[in-house]
Design a protein that fits this description.
- The protein is of the alpha+beta class and 210 residues long.
- It has one domain.
- Helix content is 20%, strand content 27%.
- The chain has one helix and eight strands; from the N terminus they run αββββββββ.
- Strands 1, 2, 3, 4, 5, 6, 7 and 8 form an eight-stranded antiparallel beta sheet that branches.
- A hairpin with an 8-residue loop joins β3 and β4.
- The longest helix has 41 residues.
């Protein structure tokens, strides 16, 4: 009886260890993806420069939802002697339906464009980040309100902050959904213009008497 109890406890410990290891394996890719997304957002550059374009929200490359993507121009490009590109690169995050998707799972994909001077079709490097994502959404703070989209035709600057929400899919139909992941990133780079006073400076001068 002692051996039976020992074997039962040992088998339970093995199942717990395997379950914990599987949970860690599932969480590591999305944690790395969130870290990469935070870095890209923190280094976003405002539109208006030679290589910098506008921040755009929405699905830009055929994603599955109109609100599941974002395009950023960011200074996270690695420069080396073999590649003639600068540090500014265009980065897109969006969800794509996986061929073997179950339970509504999608894949989070990061696409990078380095050659921003090309006038033709730009080569993109698609990087698979994580699977098992159910929803991905972004919201944008303009200084007063949180917006669900960021329209580059009306907004000529970056938002003050970007909030990211990621809901992972359940492991199976009987398992509960994990808690959503949230990320709040302030964007420090902004364009500022000076308001010039065009009033006649002579009206402020003091005239001397003769």
């Amino acid at each position: 009886m002692v051996l039976v109890v020992i074997c039962s406890v040992f088998a339970g410990a093995l199942r717990l260890q395997r379950s914990a290891a599987a949970e860690v394996d599932r969480s590591l890719p999305i944690e790395r993806a969130m870290t990469l997304l935070r870095r890209d957002l923190k280094n976003a550059v405002p539109p208006g420069g030679m290589l910098a374009g506008p921040l755009q929200s929405g699905s830009l490359q055929g994603g599955v939802d109109a609100a599941d993507g974002i395009q950023i121009y960011t200074t996270t490009g690695l420069m080396n002697a073999n590649d003639p590109w600068g540090e500014i690169q265009k980065v897109t995050y969006e969800l794509e339906t996986a061929p073997d998707a179950t339970n509504g799972e999608k894949s989070l994909v990061r696409s990078v464009t380095r050659n921003l001077l090309s006038t033709g079709t730009q080569d993109e490097d698609d990087q698979f980040l994580a699977s098992g994502v159910e929803t991905l959404s972004f919201s944008y703070f303009d200084g007063q309100n949180w917006l669900d989209t960021w329209d580059d035709t009306t907004e000529t600057n970056l938002p003050i902050a970007v909030r990211v929400n990621v809901q992972m899919a359940a492991v199976d139909s009987n398992a509960p959904k994990p808690s959503p992941l949230q990320l709040l990133v302030p964007l420090m780079a902004q364009w500022y213009t000076n308001d010039l006073d065009n009033t006649d400076s002579d009206t402020n001068s003091i005239g001397g008497g003769g």
